[in-house]
């Protein structure tokens, strides 16, 4: 089996913690660092490291005012998230569609039973 990735698949965003962060930022104009920390369950240092990685890629902008920090998804980050979401949908195809009641789908795993 070959592992081909659809166009738009983003390794940087596919990492679960970073995907969570950009997903939390997507509907918000700005999000407080404390909100992101609580929502992700990360320590301050772990969240800061992930935000720096996203910021270095141009996906997130972090603003600091005194002791308060906020983050926002940039247009580049929003575009990357949308492309990654489309790539995941293409990769999954109909896998998430429900199976009609009473029907079963057989899958050949290549392993003899």
UniProtKB/TrEMBL annotation:
Database matches in SMART domains: HTH_ARSR
PANTHER family, sorted: BSL7504 PROTEIN (PTHR37318:SF1)
The protein's name: Transcriptional regulator
Native species: Actinoplanes sandaracinus
Residues of the HTH arsR-type domain: 1-103
InterPro entries, per database record: ArsR-like_HTH, HTH_ArsR_DNA-bd_dom, WH-like_DNA-bd_sf, WH_DNA-bd_dom, WH_DNA-bd_sf
Superkingdom of the source species: Bacteria
């Amino acid at each position: 089996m070959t592992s081909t990735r659809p166009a738009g698949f983003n390794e940087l965003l596919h990492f679960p913690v970073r995907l969570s962060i950009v997903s939390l930022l997507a509907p918000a104009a700005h999000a407080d660092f404390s909100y992101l920390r609580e929502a992700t369950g990360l320590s301050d240092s772990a969240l800061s490291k992930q935000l720096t990685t996203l910021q270095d890629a141009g996906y997130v902008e972090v603003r600091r005012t005194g002791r308060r920090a906020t983050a926002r998804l940039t247009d580049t980050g929003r575009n990357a998230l949308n492309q990654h979401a489309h790539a995941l949908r293409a990769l999954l195809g109909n896998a998430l569609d429900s199976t009609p009641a009473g029907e079963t789908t057989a899958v050949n795993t290549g392993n003899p039973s």
